[in-house]
Amino acid sequence: xxxxxxxxxxxxxxxxxxxxxxxxxxxxxSDKCINSIFIEYFFEGKKYSIKEKLxxxxxxxxxxxxxxxxxxxxxxxxxxxxxxxxxIHVITFERxxxxxxxxxxxxxxxxxxxxxxxxxxxxxxxxxxxxxxxIIKDILVEKSLFRFADRAIFLSEISIQAAQRYYKxxxxxxVIIPNxxxxxxxxxxxxxNDNEEEFNIVFVGNTNRKGKGFDLLLSALKEVKxxxxxxxxxxxxxxxxxxxxxxxxxxxxxxxxxxxxxKFLNDKHFFISASLFDSFSLTAIEAMAAxxxxxxxxxxxxxxxxxxxxxxFIYDYGNYKTLANLLTQLSSDMELRKRVSNNAKLIYxxxxxxxxxxxxxxxxxxxxx
Length: 369
Description:
This protein is an alpha/beta fold. The protein has two domains: 2-180 and 352-368, 3-Layer(aba) Sandwich (Rossmann fold); 183-350, Glycogen Phosphorylase B (Rossmann fold, 3-Layer(aba) Sandwich), CATH 3.40.50.2000. It is 39% helix and 20% strand. It has helices at residues 17-31, 50-55, 73-83, 98-107, 119-125, 132-148, 157-164, 214-221, 258-264, 282-289, 320-332, 334-345, 347-351, 353-368; strands spanning 2-6, 35-40, 57-61, 67-71, 87-90, 110-115, 151-154, 174-176, 198-204, 227-233, 239-241, 248-253, 270-273, 293-297, 313-315.
């Protein structure tokens, strides 16, 4: 079984969700001696010449001596013709993956596409600075991937629903495989910090994106009567108080690598998702594995892994009063916190990367055979 991954490879450990998924799947499958190759493109705009973007080739050794190829578009097509893969997996959405569709039409290779988000939707949210030409290219590539892929891997049911608002997707192609959790996050022992006088809350995301619900979280925290530190993992770097009596103190923390984020979660109590839409939320399940209690919107994809009031809490987007009430209940009930925290950690038994990789291997064999 020869597999080619197409996507964006991040050589650091400060990773977005799609980048971490791509890196982990490639690493785990390589460790299992499955013949796999990761190919990326000459990204970064004007840094590279037209010649490099068409014919360029560079080879990089990653951690564990795994190899990543960086190829231009024409070079990529001829590279695929030469190695004749059994399956191509477009593991993060990139425009250069259109070459995989050209190759599929010519050689009938099996094609898999992991849907981390709906690009049409994302471009609408982040429209500032994106040219109309790039938006049109994104739509054409995304539409082609849904049409020609033998399987479209979604992270959750709500992600499927989001894609179906824009595209007609054959139900026979749809597969749901969630993201996995690194072992470093799993904490068997009891939570180290259960100070009833002050709680540590985590929010991860761009506070300027309305759909992330940061303003709603602030509205909820204005309703509570306990002391708390809100840690916002974002790009800003400042400290401020939320309300006049100083009960809630806000800290903005830069994005961290995997090891640092696992340590960061060590003394945190609650993880908040206030999103209008999140196809999954990898950081939420990582926090759960660490015993941090998740309080997430129903519109967060990983919410399907939470049993309300047993392994976490679920509320409807925009209902900040319900969020405030849930946080108040948690702050006043130590036994509830301990039970939910311990149950939350069990998510690791279900979603460790070893378990998730088994699902990918099963899917690959099913498609190829």
